[in-house]
Amino acid sequence: METIFDITAFGAIGDGETDCTDAIQQALDAAGEVKGAVLVPPGRYRVGTLTVPAGVHIKGDHAWAFRRPGTSILEPADENQPCLLDISGGIGCTISGLSLEGNHMGQHMHGILLYHDDYNGGGTEDTPTIEDCKVNNFSGDAVHLEHVWCFSLRHCMLSHCGGSGLFVDGWDGFVLDNWFSGNKGAGFLGGPTVNSITATGNRVEWNTAGGFCLQNGNSMNITGNYFDRSGGPGLRLCAKDDQQLDTICVTGNIFYRSGAGDCSDPPEDMLNSAHIRMEGCINCTVSANAFRMGENDGGGGTRGPESVFVIRHLKDCVFSANAVSSGSANNVFLDKGEHQGEVILQNNVGNPTGNADNIFPHFD
Q1: Quick check: 128 pLDDT over 70?
Q2: Which CATH class is domain 1-184?
Q3: Which of 16, 171, 292, 317 could be a cystine partner for 195, CB 3.0 to 4.6 Å?
């Protein structure tokens, strides 16, 4: 029984001009019948929206670099299509080794899209794996997972999109060893609910709205990431309306040159000139992180941030053992008050005030 399907056998031509939608969809559908694999040989293939079936592995030749795509390239054929790959029904699918190039077409086109009308809309864990892919230059988000349940995003570059690198509304995800670079939105943007996420070893740089920006959810581990030159905070944990962010561990990260605005001017809201901004958080710990301020590569641009931490409306949160001596232009902690419970600040070394416990200024 045949289980591996080469798209060129179905008539796909990687010349960058031929519309290969029907040919590649036929290969995907054939693989879907046997839970097989689809091979995308080196070439540039123009396609409309492709639907990835359950249990299919679509794979190409990795070989991408920061300033160029790899050799197995998919790009949109129609500026009005919603996305390049639709994995909404692709339970257990894997996408690996592809370069998805959006060419800034359309108004809000995503690279990879998973969408259900409501949570658990797929009826079971979606469990897609996206790995070793470059998803670049889309007018929307590079990867948009709306009402997702269980996913893995590993060793990908999600960059230079009009939206965010990754959008997640859902839960149970691994975000590991990725590169979020130069997006107009956030590197990682959370929707109405983001629960049970492990984000480790990511490089998050030059994203205009901020590095990781989350508004509601719980049980997240944000460990060992590198945040550089975010337009807003490197990490923005700000609950929206009456929601809250609960049980989040932020450990062992490096934050550099956050709160840059558009680089030439600081952000309009100066509370975003911070490495970490936290509002409406409960039962969170921020420990053993290192912070450094700075300006653009080669000098110039906004130097900052103003504050290492901006905090408001917290309950039972701990900030300890962080290195802050070269972290900000003015404040270590900028406290906006309204706390609902205990906030412990201890052993944060390098505070310019010389107080190891970081007794911080209070601003109403």
Answers
A1: yes
A2: mainly beta
A3: 171
